[in-house]
Amino acid sequence: MVAAPLLPETGAGARLAVEDVSHAFTIRGTPLPVLDRIGLDVAPGAFVALLGPSGCGKSTLLRLVAGLEPPERGRLVVDGVPVAGPDPSRLLVFQDPTLYPWRSVRRNVALGLEARGLARSSGHRVEEALRVVGLSDFADAYPHQLSGGMAQRTALARALVNAPSLLLLDEPLGKLDSLTRLAMQAELVRLWQDSRFTALLVTHDVEEALVLAERVIVLSDRPARITADIANPAPYPRHRDDPDLVRLRREVLGLLGVGGR
Asked: Confidence band (pLDDT; 50, 70, 90) for 63?
């Protein structure tokens, strides 16, 4: 059997609309505003990065888009349908791979299909996902036998096997060593270009955002508002010493209040 592509249709990425979204948490009975009237449109197949101060609400926005909780105000719409809860077309990849140690790489990747009752009919997708992330030779390995980068690739394969149209990335490379992180940045770009999903990335690394994303959204301190929406038209693959990227880096750092670094 020939494995089906992870996203079979050209332009299969989702369109995302964040419409006047505000959100707050309640801490000991006191509301703590986190997001303040966020409005954002993301085109199908785009790669967008969210930057902002620590704790400003970037990860909260991803959770709302994923449907893990509803916003207090406004709405989130994916391909014209309001987000009302989690869906396998919208998958969130965290900083920690959160692999089950008693399951092999193959069986970790298959989790989503198993939960949806598709493991038997769509098992070939597991092998395809492993091939896409370069882990076919480690399909029978266990998490303790993997490097940090391999574990994160397993987490990406676990998401890709469900053919998401929208991939939400919450600092997925934040705990990797610098060399592995650079390699995984290139891997993410390759996966995005090959699979054509829409990507929304949260990162604290300005350079990482500029190397990966076509568009960078800068958020203010909590409660987060959008302070800048920066297009990044540089062709791929990108090089960190590219004068245009260096200029954009200075611009973004200035918007974040750390200019001159």
From this structure: very high
177: helix, coil or strand?
A: coil
Task: Write out the two tokens for 131.
Answer: 């091939």
Which two three-digit tokens encode residue 174?
């934040």
Q: Which of 79, 160, 76, 85 is nearest to 122 (CA)?
A: 160
CATH 3.40.50.280 fits 16-89+164-255, yes or no: no
Place of tokens 């934040």: 174
Note the pLDDT tens digit of each residue in 129-155: 888 888 999 999 999 999 988 998 898
Q: Which amino acid is at 259?
A: G
Residue reference for tokens 């990108």? 238
> Domain ranges in the chain?
16-89+164-255, 101-163
Length in residues, the chain? 261
- Report pTM: 0.88
